Amino acid sequence: MDKGLIRLNDPISKYIPELGKMKIVSSFDGEDSTFTGRPAKNQITIQHLLTHTSGIGYGFQNDDLNKLFIKHEVSEGFEERDIALSQNIKRLATLPLLHEPGEKFTYGMSSDVLGYLIEVVSGQSYEEYLINNVLSPLEMDNTRIYYPTSDSSRFARVVEQSKSGLKPTSYGLIHYPYRGAQRYMSGGADLSSTALDYARFVQMLLDGGALGGKRILSEGSVELMKTPTIQTSGDWNGLGLGLDVIEKEMGKLKVTTIHFGGFFSTTFFAFPESGAMGILFLQIYPMEDWGIHDAFRQIVESSIY
Q1: pLDDT over 90 for what percent of the chain?
Q2: Domain locations along the chain
Q3: 273 in helix, strand or coil?
Q4: Is the sign of the CA dihedral 102, 95, 235, 242 positive or negative?
């Protein structure tokens, strides 16, 4: 967007025509994993994708949709199979939207679509674009989608909760960074990083889109990211462009917190007014439910305000 190649209100079908033909689901048939649908009234825009209001869902959060994902071999990331991002998004385009674009918030594969949009517009693979335009300029040299097998020992162990404490996770899709075809590049998952690398990215956001004299995003784009445009519910708060945004009054102060999390209970939060941040890499799946994230954020917050 900062390069003038796309606009927020552009329909995604301008760049990926297949996504202009998606239908709104009317019913699912669990017996044969089929669905009925009606034509969408609205086109999916880039802004819908950035705010997860496109109507595109995740299979792991919807049993009926998951049956369709399995039947049509749609990948949600953490992929060892030999599948291209373009191929996956075109498969996704044959499946239904859960609601009209722009109607409400549904967390789903919108970011994967944005990853493919980057490939279409830039002419580079998604990972190449990230390396050239974000990771290398920020000196995030340990952050990638795929790694050589020799780096496998560097990965922190993923654990899960049990009655006797923590044990190695039974979740099977944790080896993709250094095993398998190393071809699929998910825009909504797949990046691995270190706490130090991640801190550099968050610092760039706090500094208005630049770090170490290198500009990654315009100040205007960062402002859009940390300004809530829709209200959500449950574990989400207000959503800016790609970020969860918490706004609350603390005495006479209005405190803004930007936040996002990862699949294995990783999280970051930052306070734009004070410049403070917190990063927590728990490596727990299923995601932790002990309230550690909120407690950590509140401890940092109370020490500042």
Answers
A1: 83
A2: 12-122, 193-304
A3: coil
A4: negative
